[in-house]
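Troubleshooting entry. The earlier prediction with CU-O-CU linkage gave an output that would not parse, so I re-checked the input for stray whitespace and re-submitted. Clean input:
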Amino acid sequence: GITRRYTFNIMLQNVTRLCHTKSMVTVNGRFPGPKIITREGDRVLVKVVNHISNNISIHWHGVRQLRSGWADGPAYITQCPIQTGQSYVYNFTVIGQTGTLWWHAHISWLRSTVFGPIVVLPKLGVPYPFKKPYKEVPIIFGEWFNADPETVIKQALQTGGGPNVSDAYTINGLPGPLYNCSHEDAYKLKVKQGKTYMLRIINAALNDELFFSIANHTVKVVEADAVYVKPFDTDVILIAPGQTTNVLLKTHGSHSNATFLMEARPYATGLGTFDNTTTAAILEYHQNRGKQQLPLLIIRPELPSLNDTAFATSFANKFRSLNKPQVPIHIDNRFFFTVGLGTSPCPKNHTCQGPNGTKLAASVNNISFALPTTALLQAHFFGKSAGVYEPDFPTGPVHWFNYTGTPPNNTMVSNGTKVVVLPFNTTVELVMQDTSILGAESHPLHLHGFNFYVVGQGFGNYDSMKDPLRFNLVDPVERNTIGVPSGGWVAIRFIADNPGVWFMHCHLEVHTSWGLRMAWLVLNGEGPNQKLPPPPSDLPKC
Ligand code: C2O
């Protein structure tokens, strides 16, 4: 492969949406940020230069980072953040992946404005497993806050309550015509009749899974998280924060004067408040020259209702691997993680806005993960883990619950910086169960450094005797982000073939902030290609 070089200048830029101008953190002054295009097998070098007063760090979401863990990016996990005036070159090769991924800031809530697409084309001469589309377009969903998102999360963490919700969702950075003061701020996709367009869809919203539909058009889903899936047709897609999916849009055979809206709005089952507005973009057919233009008819799509879990379930079940996957059959390491919300004590002399005057929190196996002040990967690599992390993350929940019955009285989480240690090349099965404490909710769990197979999912309590009998070990979908169903569980399998420290967290940003996160530490193997190399010399220091 070749080497592709990019420079990301992290800088402030004034941006106006909804008649509201704010100075916000961007890459090269652009919102959404620049697109990275590469081919499978190419090396990507991104020099990130920090020109702002906040610390920054960039994550290449979904890139496996095989033996390049120093380039993964989550602050205080694989690296210390890049400080003001400093820079760091992220250096990685995309191996064995093609499709759409994305990059985003991975510190505090800066990813709300710092994100962009990663397009991974197949190796030269390797075709798609479908007819080459006429055109390919990224469609990125985001969330716009009139306020500074850093202030929003700081306030929430101080008061212990839920954060203020966003003011709009966006498609390619634009809220679209359904919002006040946004009529001109709509993304417009101009299409020709009878052509196939590939939409590279990315959900970069902070806190919401989104339904998406294009009026009077069906799409064909062909890829998820940069892995091909068995194609299927659908009128509506559902996509969680962190997920990406490629769909083929075949335009109508005859010219149309109508304007078709493409709309996205949330899927939400939790108890908290959320932004329930709708973002829209425009699909418009090219006018034939000389034709008289008729008055435009605007057609809107129909989207499922906000809490349509039946749709969510049947949609999730449609995803199957296209190519025969190598699903681990013999399992070396089994884990059962509860994921969900909880509470922690209110600091003295504070009034907290969580339930019964507590602070809202979130946990995995009752542990709310506390970020260290130095990076876990550095501590591990240099043998300085003492006082930074403990290797005893529990394999099952500390308190057992009946997840479907009355929620337990004890909603308290405990704090800790614990990791699971995995020997190199061992296999892992992980069942994640939504605790439903403080409301049943879908949690999109994202694993860094790996793709995993989604072998099973269901509702209610996971039954370790019966449920494995129904696991799909034949053609499960392979992803990096999967929704733990609202009031249910999901089972995944992966091979720990990538030495390093790998973050796993809910991609609803507020849940991450509350502690729904943990890390896996994969040890080196004995072979020459089974070790994490030493860090690059410009790796930031804390
Ligand atoms: Cu897309 Cu840890 O993140």
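This one parsed fine. The chain has a mean pLDDT of 95.
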